[in-house]
Amino acid sequence: MSDTITDGLTVSAEGIVGAEVIEFWPDIARHFKQKHAEKLARRAAQRDAQSGASPSAPVAKPEN
Predict the structure, then answer these.
(1) d(CA 54, CA 64)
(2) C-alpha angle 19/64/31, rounded to 5°?
(3) Residue 62 DSSP SS3
(4) Are 27 and 34 in contact (CB under 8 A)?
(5) 8 vs 2: CA distance, rounded Å
(6) Is 37 exposed, middle or buried (0-12, 13-18, 19+ CB in 10 A)?
(7) Euclidean distance between the first and the last CA atom of the chain, given in angstroms as a whole number
(8) Distance (Å, whole) CA 33 – CA 50
């Protein structure tokens, strides 16, 4: 009996976590893509500042 209850709770918990991941995945992915683009822009700005060159053209955002 305890194995059945344990298995049922496990499946329910996995379903809840899975539903939350599906629900919020676009927001999570957008967050990390935005942070990556900001990091690349920061590196480009540092490179331009170190070389003394004029700022390069804005970096295009990656397409989905």
Answers:
(1) 30
(2) 60
(3) coil
(4) no
(5) 10
(6) middle
(7) 48
(8) 26
Domain boundaries, the chain: 25-50
Chain mean position to CA 14: 21
The neighbour count for residue 59, using CB atoms within 10 Å, is: 13
In tens digits, the chain (64 residues) has pLDDT values of 999 999 999 999 999 999 999 999 999 999 999 999 999 999 999 998 888 755 555 666 666 5
H helix intervals, 1-64: 2-51
